[in-house]
Amino acid sequence: MATEVRAGDRGNRGRLLTALYIAQEQEGYLTAEAMQRVAERLGVSEAEVYSTASFYTLFRTEPVGRYVIQVCRGLSCYLVGGAERLVDYLERKLGIKAGETTADGLFTLETVQCLASCGTAPAMRVNDELYEHLTTEKVDMLIDQFRERAERWAALNQS
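The structure corresponding to this sequence follows.
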C-alpha cells in the first residue's frame, strides 16, 4: 500500500529529485553514502533512490571535472550545426573522449541529446551556462577562460 501511495505521489518524487540535486551539489556527484542518506531521510528504499539517480542525466554517480562540457547532439545540432565536428574538436583539444575527464580534473566532456537551443546550433552547456553559435575560435576562447579561472582560483586558495 505504501509503495502505491509513493508511486502516485508526485510530491514525493519532487522531494526525491530535490534532495538528490542538493546532495550532488555538495560533492559534485552522488556518492553511495549520499544516496543512502537521502533514502533514510525521505523514507524510501535505496533502490528507488539509485534508480532515480541513474535514470536522469542531470545526476552523476561518478566524479566529474570542475567544468562539465555538454555538447548537444540533437538533430538540429547534428545535421545543421556541426555537432560532430565540435565533439571531435573538443576531444582533440582536451585530449579526452566524450565521457571522460581530463587528467587535471578540470574538464569532463559529455554529449547530450538536446539543450533546447535548436535555432542556435551548435550549442554546448558548461556547468549551468549555455553557449550557442559555436565555432572553433569561440571554443578555444571559452576553454582558455575556464583554465584562467581555475588558475586564479588556485592562486587565491594558496594565499
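The longest strand covers residues 67-72.
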